[in-house]
Specification:
Elements (H helix, E strand, L loop, with lengths): L23 E18 L4 E5 L3 E2 L5 E2 L1 E6 L14 E4 L6 E6 L11 E8 L7 E23 L4 E2 L6 E2 L5 E2 L10 H6 L10 E2 L1 H6 L17 H22 L28 E4 L11 H24 L13 H10 L2 H4 L9 H8 L5 E8 L2 H6 L9 E8 L1 H9 L1
Parallel strand pairs: 7-13
Antiparallel strand pairs: 1-9, 1-14, 2-5, 3-4, 5-6, 7-8, 8-9, 9-10, 9-11, 9-12, 15-16
């Protein structure tokens, strides 16, 4: 697949702490790829002939082989009705070649991929033949793409995933720039001797995504070979398209017909998501959201001030906490007087301490229950009495008894 010229455009600049070379950018983008409409021909649709030890005009012994594929003999003369014709040495087990023409002067298809398996030690020598006739064009497909950095380098850890349901025709014609057979001439010549494979099929059996050589002789591997042919053809044509790219404002290859005057690939805008995995998680809001939030907070502050000024002043505490009356109310609110002797003024401090529980006695200030008798007199509904705020003597025996219950 080949992508149009792309440039990142952001509404707000990146924060200074963002490393723009490591961020990942995800987007669904259009790409151009080769579309191949293919027909598979099996052995019963291919007529072959192999002549052993045929003497040519100079007396050299050869093994001429020819093949005719039913349905691919367009425009061939009666004198030479063979789609393929070649000499096969006796040490060759596999033969494969791409032929055809975009003007259909030799085959009905733009491209005809042919492969065969020979075994000169058995009969018949021709063990297997198959062919794939393909008409080629270009199409546009939306691709789920992930880039690494704002230079938009493809993230090879997450290869682009085409959304097959979005495939559509492209304005780029199949024969406008490319002659598919000539594209194979530029492929590296790979030595696969003694087998007789052209540059395309030699690549097909040696590339990183290669199929095994033995697949060329296995009828059950035809589907695997067809998929490999389409894949490698796609890689070759994507590289070819990338080599002839022009600025996006000079093309409209990714646009869907009909195209309005002046439309070009550079006018399209695509939403993208930027993720910085090395930074802290944060929430980003646009200027409009910020202004709305500021207005709401300002209105709340104004209403609070108006309510504070307009409302009547009320005391939070019922009385001043430093007065004698407040101190007496704390004593009266608790159970401290219930422990003191009735003739308090005539007893010594040691007797008062003993009455409160001795040196280990504990007192606390807070909410507590007054004695049951007083609770009943005051209409308390709970068995422990009513709850008041004051100073209380903690009865260790009562606490222990309740804990045991």
């Amino acid at each position: 697949m080949a992508f149009p010229e792309l440039m990142p455009a952001t509404a707000t600049p990146f924060a200074p702490t963002v490393n723009t070379s490591t961020v990942t950018i995800s987007a669904v983008l259009p790409a151009i790829r080769v579309a191949m409409d293919c027909r598979l021909y099996k052995s019963d649709q291919i007529h072959t002939n192999l002549t052993l030890n045929h003497k040519d005009v100079v007396g050299t012994s050869r093994n001429p082989f020819w093949a005719q594929v039913k349905g691919e003999a367009c425009h061939l003369s009666d004198d030479d009705p063979h789609v393929l014709s070649i000499d096969i040495p006796s040490n060759v087990n596999y033969y494969a070649k791409v032929t055809g023409s975009t003007d259909h002067t030799t085959t009905c298809s733009d491209l005809l991929f042919f492969w065969a398996n020979f075994d000169f030690s058995t009969s018949p020598i021709v063990q297997h033949t198959s062919a794939l006739g393909c008409n080629t064009s270009f199409e546009v497909v939306d691709v789920d793409t992930k880039f690494l950095g704002t230079d938009l380098d493809l993230d090879l850890r997450s290869p682009p995933q085409p959304l097959e349901g979005t495939a559509r025709n492209s304005t780029l014609g199949a024969t406008q720039y490319l002659d598919f057979l000539n594209d194979y001439i530029g492929l590296a010549r790979i030595n696969v001797s003694p087998q007789n494979l052209d540059q395309f099929f030699a690549t097909l059996v040696t590339a990183p995504w290669a199929i095994p050589m033995s697949a060329l002789g296995d009828p059950s591997a035809n589907a695997e070979i067809e998929a490999a042919i389409k894949f490698h053809q796609g890689v070759i044509q994507a590289q070819k398209i990338s080599g002839i790219r022009v600025p996006a404002n000079e093309t409209n290859s990714t646009l869907t017909q009909p195209i309005s005057p002046g439309d070009n690939d550079a006018r399209s805008r695509f939403n993208a998501t930027v993720v910085d995995a090395t930074s802290r998680r944060r929430v980003v809001q646009d200027a409009a959201s910020t202004h709305i939030l500021v207005a709401l907070l300002a209105a709340a502050l104004v209403l609070f001030i108006v309510g504070w000024v307009a409302s009547p002043s009320t005391s939070v505490l019922p009385r001043k906490p430093t007065t004698i009356a407040s101190a007496a109310a704390l004593l009266a609110g608790g159970n401290l007087f219930a422990y003191l002797p009735a003739d308090g003024p005539s007893v010594s401090p040691e007797e008062i301490v003993a009455a409160l529980g001795g040196p280990d006695a504990r007192v606390c200030m807070g909410w507590g229950n007054v004695p049951d008798e007083e609770g009943r007199l005051n209409g308390g509904e709970n068995e422990a009495g009513v709850c008041r705020f004051g100073i209380f003597v903690v009865d260790e025996k009562e606490q222990t008894s309740r804990a045991g219950l």
